[in-house]
Each structure stands twice: as structure tokens, then as C-alpha cells.
Amino acid sequence: MQTTTKKIETFRFRVNVNQSDIDAGECRLASQCMEKVAIARTLMNEHRGRSDAELRVRVDGGHIRFNLRGCYWKADTPKVAKAALIRFDHKQPVEPHSYIVEARNVGKIKPIARERQDQVNAARRARIRAGQPDKVYQRLTLRKRIVGFA
User: Fold this and answer.
1) CB within 10 Å: which end of the chain, N or C, has fewer?
2) Which of 7-11, 38-42, 146-150 has the lowest average pLDDT?
3) Nearest of 98, 12, 103, 38 to residue 64 by alpha carbon
4) Are 114 and 97 in contact, with CB atoms under 8 Å apart?
5) CA 142, CA 131: separation in Å to the nearest integer?
6) Beta strands of 7-132 (E only): which ranges?
7) Residues in Cβ contact with 69 at an 8 Å cutoff, skipping those fewer than 6 apart
């Protein structure tokens, strides 16, 4: 048996979900839920010059994922946020709340090689010419988003 020690880079930040985040959020949509809107706003305020699209925040009942400073970050969804998310996705009233997120660095973002991007684009054009619809990433079902995490 071998034991190793590994450094894990983490950082903590407080998220305040206010009424405007709740009003702007959409039920069952991981890219537009109230928690995602609040986390993206908090990260944009703390790290000036970052756009919402650049952060790519995703939230579900188990984890919060986002990009920042050239790395992928992941955090467990706090109980307060998870409970509010479940109520929100069941279209029940949710009150403003706050919590602390402790994210850990998962790894560096590796850019896609130009050859690979050309290959993906060629395959997309071939699908369109063949009459197949382009791939669309749809809303998560309630089961995929929160069931099993409660």
C-alpha cells in the first residue's frame, strides 16, 4: 500500500440569492436557474472582466461547476441551495437566501486543437446536409437535475 499527499487548491465565496435572481431564474433549467444566476453574478463581481458566458456556471442538486482563471472548478451544492433548488423546480415559492460555496480546482482548461474544431464543424455540416437536425442540448429533466440528491 502506498500513501500520497496531494495539494488541492480551493477558494470560498458567499452567494446571496436575492429576489431579482429568483425572478430572473427559470425552473428546471441548469443554465438559467436562480442559483446559477446568483453564483455567476457573485463571480463576475469578485473577478472583474469575466463574462457570464466565460464562467460557464452549471448548478444541479449535487454540484456547482464553473470555469475561472483558466481552470475548471467544482463544489458540492450546499444544503440551503439544494433545498431551495428543489422547491424552485417544483414551482413552489422560494425566499431570498445566502450560503458559502467552497470550490476546488479540478484541472486546467485545455484548448481544443484547430484540427479537432475543423473536424467537429465538418461533421456538423455533413449532418445538416443529410437532413439530420443539429444537436440541441435541452433542459435537464427534473429527475436528472435533483431527484436522488434530496
Assistant:
1) N
2) 146-150
3) 103
4) no
5) 31
6) 10-17, 58-59, 63-68, 71-76, 97-108
7) 47
**Helix (H), strand (E) counts: the chain:** 6, 5
What CA–CA distance (Å, rounded) separates 50 from 53?
8
What whole-number distance in Å separates Cα of residue 69 and Cα of residue 97? Answer: 27
Q: At a CB cut-off of 8 Å and minimum separation 6, what does 52 contact?
A: 40, 44
Q: Which three cell numbers stand for residue 35?
A: 442559483
CA distances from 140 to 55, 86, 143 (A): 20, 13, 8
Q: What's the CA gap between 76 and 93, in Å, rounded? A: 24
pLDDT, position 69:
85
pTM: 0.76
- Ramachandran region, residue 54 (left: φ > 0; alpha: ψ -120 to 50; beta: rest): alpha
d(CA 138, CA 131): 20
Amino acid at 89: D
Q: What is the pLDDT of residue 3?
A: 85
